[in-house]
Write a structure and sequence with these properties.
Elements (H helix, E strand, L loop, with lengths): L2 H49 L1 H38 L2 H28 L1 H8 L3 H14 L2 H17 L4 H23 L9 H26 L15 H33 L3 H17 L1 H19 L3 H36 L4 H34 L4 H24 L5 H8 L2 H15 L9
C-alpha cells in the first residue's frame, strides 16, 4: 500500500470515528428524551390502571386529541428542520431565527384551535373514539382540564425540536426529565389524593399533566432568553416578513405536516376501530402501544440524528458524505429495530402480571405484544428512511404518498372491513391494522436506492 492509499485509509477511519461520535452525541440524549416521553405516558397508564379499566381507556382515547395536535407540531418542525439543518451547515444563523418565528406563528394558531375544540365539544369528540357512555364522560372531564396545556406545548415542542436540528439536543432532555419528575409527583398527589389533596382520578391525571407542561414552558423561555447565545429567539420573529423564506417553508413543511397528519389520523383511526371492539381491547392496546414506544426510543433517535447530520452534510455541498452517512444510518436502525423487538418480548411477562385489567384484556395484550415485536422492526427502518434520510434532502412528498397509500388504502381500510363487515376475531383484525409498516418496506427501500432524495434546498 503506497503513501497515498495509506493516507486515504486513515482519513476514512477518522471520518467514521467522527461520524459515530456525532451520532452518539445526538442519539443518546434524544433516545433518553424519547424514553422520558414514554415514561410520562407509562406513568399515566400505570397509575390510571390502578384506578380502573374505564379511566385507563378514557385517558388513552382522550390522549388521541393531543396526539393529533402534536402531529401538526411535528410536521411543522420537521418541515422547518429540512431548512434549518441545511442552513446550519451553511452557518446562516439569521435565517434559522426567522424560520423559528414562522413555525411558531403556525403552531400557536393550531394550539388555540384545539384548546377551544376540547373546551366546547369534549363529549362529541370522545364519541368519535368510543360509544361507551362511561368512557365518554371520563374522557370529557380529562379534556376540559388538559386543554390549557396545548397552548404551552405549541411553544416548547416547536422550539426544542428546532434546537435539535442545530445540534442543541441536551436542553430537550433536561426539560423533559424535569417535566417527568413533576408529572409523576403531581399525578400521584391528584389521582390518589395524597398530601391532603382530593382523590380526583382521571381529572387528577389531567391536572398533573397540565402543571408539568407549564413548568416546561418556564424552563424553555428561560433557556431561550438567558442561555442560548447561538440561535436567539425574539417574539418579534413571530411577525417576520421574508417572502422567499416563507415560500420555502410552505414548500417543505406543508407536505411533511400533511404526512404527519395522515399518519397520525391513520393511527387514531386504528384507535377508533379498536375502540368499537370493546373497552378491554382498548385497555390492552394502550399498554401495547406504550411498550412499542419504549422499544423504539433509540430507533427514533437514530432517525432524528440522520435528518440532522445528513441535512448538514448536504448544506455543506458534500453529497458523497451524505450518501455514506445514509448507508450507516440504515445499518444502525436495523440493529435498533431488532433490539427493540427483543425488549418487547423480554418485558412481556412482567407487564402481563403487573396490570390490573380483566382476563379478557390480558389475553388480548399477550397477542398484541407479539404483533408489536415484529412491527417495531419495520417502523424503525421506515422512520429512519422517511423522517431521517429523505427529509434531510428535502424529499418531503414521498412520505405523504406512502402513508396515504399503505395506511388509508391498505391496513386501515382492510382492518375496518375485517372488523365491521366480516366480523373477524380481535387478533386477526389487530394484525391487519398493524400491517402498514411491513407493507412500506419495499417502497422505502426503492426510494432510498433511487437517490432522488439527495438535494440541496438552501438559497
Amino acid at each position: 500500500m503506497n503513501q497515498l492509499e495509506t493516507q486515504s485509509v486513515q482519513e476514512s477511519k477518522l471520518e467514521k470515528k467522527q461520524f459515530y461520535k456525532a451520532v452518539f452525541a445526538l442519539v443518546l440524549p434524544m433516545a433518553l428524551q424519547n424514553l422520558i416521553n414514554v415514561a410520562v405516558t407509562s406513568a399515566d397508564v400505570i397509575m390510571l390502571g390502578q384506578v380502573g379499566e374505564t379511566a385507563l381507556s378514557a385517558s388513552s382515547l382522550a390522549g388521541q386529541v393531543q396526539f393529533i395536535m402534536t402531529l401538526f407540531f411535528f410536521g411543522l418542525t420537521s418541515g422547518a428542520a429540512v431548512l434549518t439543518a441545511q442552513y446550519w451547515g451553511k452557518k446562516d444563523i439569521r435565517t434559522i431565527e426567522k424560520i423559528i418565528g414562522i413555525t411558531l406563528r403556525f403552531s400557536l394558531i393550531v394550539s388555540v384551535a384545539f384548546t377551544l375544540a376540547v373546551w366546547i365539544f369534549p363529549e362529541p369528540i370522545m364519541r368519535i373514539f368510543t360509544p361507551d357512555p362511561a368512557v365518554i364522560a371520563e374522557g370529557a372531564d380529562y379534556l376540559r382540564i388538559v386543554g390549557i396545556s396545548y397552548i404551552t406545548m405549541s411553544f416548547t415542542i416547536i422550539y426544542l425540536n428546532i434546537m435539535r436540528s442545530v445540534e442543541r439536543v441536551v436542553v430537550s432532555t433536561v426539560v423533559y426529565l424535569i417535566s417527568l419528575v413533576a408529572n409523576i409527583i403531581f399525578n400521584s398527589i391528584f389521582i390518589f389524593g395524597l398530601l391532603g389533596a382530593p382523590a380526583m382520578g382521571i381529572r387528577g391525571a389531567a391536572l398533573g399533566t397540565t402543571l408539568a407542561r407549564l413548568i416546561e414552558l418556564v424552563i424553555v423561555l428561560f433557556y431561550a432568553y438567558r442561555m442560548n447565545r447561538d440561535v436567539r429567539f425574539r417574539f418579534s420573529e413571530l411577525l417576520v416578513h421574508d417572502k422567499l423564506l416563507f415560500r420555502d417553508f410552505l414548500r417543505y413543511s406543508i407536505p411533511v405536516t400533511l404526512n404527519e397528519l395522515m399518519w397520525g389520523l391513520g393511527t387514531s383511526m386504528n384507535a377508533v376501530v379498536i375502540g368499537h371492539l370493546g373497552s378491554s381491547v382498548v385497555a390492552a392496546n394502550s399498554v401495547a402501544q406504550v411498550t412499542r414506544q419504549l422499544a423504539t426510543v433509540i430507533a427514533f433517535g437514530i432517525a432524528n440524528a440522520a435528518a440532522i447530520l445528513i441535512g448538514k452534510a448536504i448544506g455543506e455541498n458534500n453529497n458523497p458524505k451524505a450518501s455514506r452517512y445514509a448507508h450507516r444510518f440504515v445499518v444502525l436502525t436495523l440493529i435498533a429495530g431488532v433490539c427493540g423487538a427483543l425488549v418487547i418480548l423480554l418485558v412481556r411477562p412482567f407487564i402481563m402480571t403487573g396490570m390490573n385489567v380483566s382476563e379478557e384484556a390480558r389475553s388480548y395484550l399477550s397477542m398484541m405484544m407479539f404483533v408489536m415485536s415484529y412491527f417495531v422492526i419495520g417502523q424503525a427502518y421506515n422512520t429512519t428512511m422517511v423522517v431521517g434520510i429523505f427529509r434531510a434532502g428535502g424529499d418531503t412528498k414521498f412520505g405523504l404518498a406512502l402513508d396515504v397509500s399503505t395506511m388509508w388504502g391498505g391496513s386501515i381500510l382492510l382492518g375496518a372491513i375485517c372488523a365491521f363487515v366480516f366480523h373477524w376475531s380481535v387478533p386477526a383484525v389487530y394484525m391487519v391494522l398493524m400491517s402498514d409498516e411491513i407493507i412500506k418496506i419495499p417502497f422505502t427501500t426503492w426510494r432510498y436506492r433511487s437517490r432522488k432524495w439527495l438535494r440541496n434546498v438552501t438559497r
